[in-house]
Amino acid sequence: MNPSRQQSKLQEAKAEVLSLLKILSDKVDLERKLGVNYLQLDPIIKNNISQEEEMISQQPVPESVCDNLDTYNEDTKVELSKSEKIEALSKLEEQVKKCTKCELCNNRTNVVFGTGDQDADLMFVGEAPGYYEDEQGEPFVGKAGQLLTKIIESIGLKRSDVYIANILKCRPPDNRNPNANEIVMCSPHLIRQIEIIRPKIICALGTFAAQTLLDTKETIGKLRGKFFEYQSTKFLATYHPAYLLRNPGDKKKVWTDIKKVRDFLQE
Ligand code: SF4
Fold first, then answer.
1. CA distances from 70 to 17, 25, 91, 168, 232 (A)
2. Are 237 and 203 within 8 A, CB to CB?
3. Cα dihedral 136, 137, 139, 145 in deg (nearest 10)
4. How far is the CA of 75 from the centre of ligand 1 (A)?
5. pLDDT tens per residue, range 97-106
6. Could you count the other beta carbons within 10 Å of the beta carbon of residue 248?
7. Are 96 and 111 in contact (CB under 8 A)?
8. pLDDT tens, residue by residue, 43-52
9. Which of 111, 127, 212 to mutate to test the pocket of ligand 1 (most atoms within 8 A of CB)?
10. 113 CA distance to ligand 1 middle (Å)
11. Rounded CA gap, 63 and 48, in Å?
12. Average pLDDT over residues 146-162
């Protein structure tokens, strides 16, 4: 090959590697915003990375990206059987029960990990445990929880048919709103739960769950009732049951939203 052709081939290869690194860097940035503190590669990116380029991806990444790598090192792209999901969630729960990544560990009675069918098609995500949830170690057990059970039953399902979890696993004092640090520290637990369960649809309950998972500051009033995608999973947000207890006039809107979830599951 003559030297100028060799030079042009080299430049083409360099441009391709730079473009792949840009895709990877954008993805890491996006996931960091969502609170993912470990590196995961989309199959599309993975397939496009040649052996030589894969060596580049294996080079040390910034420390913040590696923070949880030792904790969550399973291949998140492999579809698990139900028994594998049960085992993976149980292992994860043991880890989360010991979590001290934010100051909420200091006053918790229980870590509220999540409950329900580990192989559920529908997963509800709320904000954070309240008083009763902290006492019992289970999400949505107070009055808001009873209302959520009614909402689930209104579409012909039982509570045990779905999986329920929160963004935060420990109760904020006096049920105050979660702060940004707590959300960033705790979100990887939820993201890992979603990766294991792989529901067909996620229904976010309330502002914090919707804004955190969609990485937006848009109000729940604007987000609710519309389909979005969260990491290739259908996503719909609606009002939190606790909000409905204070604003019963908006119950109709939630019935409308939840019927969309039902219709999607029946498609
Ligand atoms: S709220 Fe989440 S990050 Fe904070 S201590 Fe509890 S489990 Fe850990």
1. 27, 21, 14, 21, 25
2. yes
3. 0
4. 23
5. 999 999 999 9
6. 10
7. yes
8. 333 333 333 3
9. 111
10. 10
11. 25
12. 97
